[in-house]
Write a structure and sequence with these properties.
The complex is a heterodimer of chains A (about 210) and B (about 500).
Chain A (H helix, E strand, L loop, with lengths): L6 E4 L1 E4 L6 H4 L13 H4 L2 H4 L23 E4 L11 H9 L3 E4 L4 H8 L4 E4 L2 H13 L5 E4 L4 E3 L5 E3 L4 H9 L4 H5 L2 H10 L11
Chain B lengths: L7 H9 E3 L1 H4 L12 H7 L3 E4 L2 E5 L4 H10 L9 E4 L16 H17 L3 E2 L9 H7 L8 E4 L13 E4 L2 H10 L1 E4 L3 E8 L8 H12 L7 E6 L1 H4 L3 H9 L8 E4 L3 H7 L9 H10 L12 E6 L6 E3 L7 E3 L7 H4 L4 H11 L14 E4 L1 H4 L2 H11 L9 E4 L4 H9 L2 H8 L2 E2 L20 E4 L14 E4 L2 H10 L6 H14 L8
Parallel strand pairs in B: 3-4, 3-6, 4-5, 6-7, 9-10, 9-12, 10-11, 15-16, 15-18, 16-17, 18-19
Antiparallel strand pairs in B: 1-2, 2-8, 13-14
Helix pairs in contact in B: 4-7, 8-10, 16-18, 16-19
Chain lengths: ~210, ~500
């Protein structure tokens, strides 16, 4: 069950790269776990360490000392492309990331993120460019993301509204997930199933 | 509304909507988790979509089963669910113990989960084990008009049958296990028309790589592809699977081909396909699925199939691809916006802007995966490798997509063709496509691969991947460098014509 997100104030980590895929966010060899333990260490692992396991110099984005504890990412277009692994948002959350700003997110990643109260905040290319300029001028400025009012407030005092799936917003504000909601609609599922015979029987011996 | 022309996707969608958001959230109180149904209505809940078939594998499912246990829930329809072990399973001798402790535990876990929840499991030692997207179709479970999900982004593969099939995360796996439904927003549609006729040596893999090179890896985001046109109609079922498989690499969660006689011929007689009178009735229904004349797509693109050449990627995402006769682009050619990503990709790949892609040196060749690990793929590779030797010092792995593919290949003597050529012949699995099971590139190695992703480190830390078709990979195995397969395909076809035998099809 994810925890709630209502509003958070944090500094920002900028990763100015496009198409950051799930193999970068959480490499496949870390997917052999059967729980969610240890994923903070897997986050962006191959960016942070050379193939022989040495920490890279200079340190990669999230290893920079001044970036410790920051909860927002500002990233390039099409973040989270690639696989369906929910380990990617799990790893981001485990490290401490609560919201990500991009011009777009891959479909499956976006769904997985919202189910873990990790906010994918989509901005226009113009807004993204402005945010990048603002970040460059004030890299230690604090931004506030308010999910209730769907507003981002910037260190210069300006603010802008953002869109997010309304149902996901309800779930994230309440800190709940969708299974309870769908389980409460079981009569509708039963009615559909009564009217639509099963298409396959995977247990059939034939 | 019934009279409005609809696309294939819309027809499947309409049939499977259990409840629209507003209808679903009738004001009958709060849900079990305390989320107010009324609030959900106000926020516009997504539709509840019924799922016909749920495919499960060892990597993305363990936490979903843990969730079920914590909630005290059962699997609603174990008989609409099927599980296998493919990602972390070794492709070496199955009688040997699994040395990787974590993989061993994960494989034991799925077996235990399936036993506890009553799900049929096609695991180690089963003659029907294999990559989840290979066994669904070969068992006849994948059928037109169905909704199919799996905790794997390459679930799009099943769209080849005219099914709405897409990848989901672990939270959604838990949802489907518990309810056999998903909360979904209706996707937009994206028509991909491939006209004309592919030249010999060009196949489905080249079509999809060319599409992604054109629209980019995020080009299909929010959409579902429907592949149409003469070049698509001419593809075999296995080639269509290759095509749909990589829809996600173009950003589309699903990709479909409308069912036709090719689809029905493939399905007929398979284990879980309808039989007798039920078959006739099913085919009658499937014939109504193709998109109606006049239906409107949200987006459309046309690709000239006559002009396609074999494709090879040069970069670190599947959109960074060129014709095998082409060159690695320069910063000027890709434009200022894409130049930094190009530069980073070329640094990782150790390639120069402007260099020819053909002739690039290789260390490893991988033929396999859910994209290109089926029998036609292996036959295609075998037509090229037959009676020849792979280049010295090259490692060549051929990994069948399933145990059934393996058995068929061995019955046809393809394993002997591969081993005589100097390639390794392995047990089935995802293998070097995702490099979770010990099959991997070493840091700095160059591999040409019939798989689907060339992301940094995808095939092993520091490994450098060129994506290509089985024909291109096999032709490159002979030379040790990236090679245009068309001359050797033509030679093989001429030889086969002389010998009077059939040649493999290009996937």
């Amino acid at each position: 069950m994810p925890d709630a997100f209502v509003r958070t104030t944090s500094r920002v980590i900028s990763i100015p790269r496009s198409n950051i895929d799930t193999d970068q966010i959480c490499p496949a060899r870390f997917l052999k776990i059967t729980d969610k333990a240890g994923l903070a260490d897997a986050l962006f692992f191959d960016w942070r360490f050379t193939p022989d396991g040495t920490r890279r110099v200079p340190p990669s984005f999230i290893d920079e000392p001044h970036n410790q504890g920051r909860e927002f990412l500002l990233v390039g277009d099409n973040f989270g492309s690639g696989s369906s692994r929910e380990h990617a948002p799990w790893a981001l959350r485990a490290w401490g990331v609560r919201a990500i700003f991009s011009t777009s997110f891959a479909d499956i990643f976006k769904q997985n993120a919202m189910k873990n109260a990790l906010l994918p905040i989509v901005v226009t290319p113009e807004r993204h460019a402005a945010l990048s300029v603002l970040f460059a001028a004030d890299p230690d400025g604090e931004w506030t993301v308010d999910l209730e009012t769907q507003k981002v407030t910037l260190p210069d005092g300006s603010a802008f509204d953002f869109e997010i799936d309304g149902f996901a917003r309800t779930m994230i504000l309440a800190g709940t997930d969708e299974i309870g909601y769908v389980m409460s609609r079981l009569p509708a599922i039963e009615a559909w199933e009564a009217a639509h015979p099963a298409r396959v029987d995977t247990l059939a011996a034939r | 509304m019934a009279d409005r022309p609809r696309t294939l996707v819309e027809k499947i969608w309409d049939t499977h909507v259990v409840a629209l958001g507003a209808d679903a959230a009738s004001a009958d109180g709060a849900s079990a988790d305390g989320a107010s149904a009324l609030a959900a209505t106000e926020s516009g809940a997504p539709a509840i979509l019924a799922i016909d078939l749920h495919l499960v594998h060892e990597v993305t499912s363990p936490q979903a089963f843990t969730g079920l246990r914590q909630r005290g829930l059962k699997v609603r329809h174990p008989e609409r669910t099927i599980a296998t072990a493919d990602h972390s399973i070794p492709t070496t001798d199955p009688n040997l113990p699994i040395l990787d402790e974590l993989a061993r535990k994960q494989l034991a876990q799925i077996e235990e989960n399936c036993r506890e929840f009553g799900i049929p499991f096609h695991g180690k030692g089963s003659p029907t084990r294999g990559i989840v997207h290979v066994i669904g179709p070969e068992l006849g479970l994948t059928q037109p008009g169905m909704t199919i999900v799996c905790g794997d982004s390459h679930t799009a593969t099943h769209g080849a049958f005219g099914a709405l099939a897409f990848g989901i995360g672990t939270s959604e796996i838990e949802m489907v296990l518990a309810t056999q439904t998903l909360l979904q927003r209706k996707p937009k549609t994206f028509k991909v028309e491939v006209t004309g006729r592919l030249q010999p040596g060009v196949g489905a893999k080249d079509i999809i790589l060319a599409l992604i090179a054109r629209i980019g890896v995020g080009g299909g985001t929010g959409h579902v592809f429907e592949f149409t046109g003469d070049a698509i109609r001419a593809l075999s079922m296995e080639a269509r699977m290759t095509l749909c498989n990589m829809s996600i690499e173009g950003g589309a969660r699903a990709g479909l081909v409308a069912p036709d006689e090719t689809t029905f011929a493939y399905l007929k007689g398979r284990k879980h396909a309808p039989q007798g009178a039920a078959w006739d009735k099913a085919v009658e229904a499937w014939r109504k699925l193709p998109t109606d004349e006049g239906a409107v797509y949200d987006r459309t693109i046309v690709i000239d199939g006559d002009k396609l050449e074999p494709m090879v990627t040069y970069g670190t995402n599947p959109g960074m691809g060129v014709f095998v006769t082409g060159h690695v682009p320069t910063a000027t050619e890709v434009g200022a916006a894409a130049a930094p990503d190009l530069e980073r990709a070329l640094t990782y790949m150790g390639l120069q802007a402007g260099q020819s892609i053909a002739g690039q040196k290789l260390d490893v060749v991988f033929i396999g995966s859910c994209t290109n690990g089926r029998i036609e793929d292996l036959r295609a590779a075998a037509t090229i490798l037959s009676g020849r030797r792979v280049a010295p010092s090259l490692r060549v792995l051929v990994v069948p997509g399933s145990q059934q593919v393996k058995k068929q290949a061995e019955a046809e003597g393809l394993d002997k063709v591969f081993t005589a050529a100097g390639a390794e012949w392995r047990e089935s699995g995802c293998s070097m496509c995702i490099a979770m099971n010990g099959d991997q590139l070493e840091p700095g190695q160059y591999g040409i691969s019939t798989s689907n992703r060339n992301f940094e480190g995808r095939q092993g830390k520091g490994g450098r991947t060129f994506l290509a078709s089985p024909l291109t990979a096999a032709a490159s195995a002979l030379t040790g460098v990236v090679t245009d397969p068309r001359p050797v395909v033509a030679a093989a076809a001429a030889g086969a014509a002389t010998a009077g035998t059939a040649t493999g099809k290009a996937n």
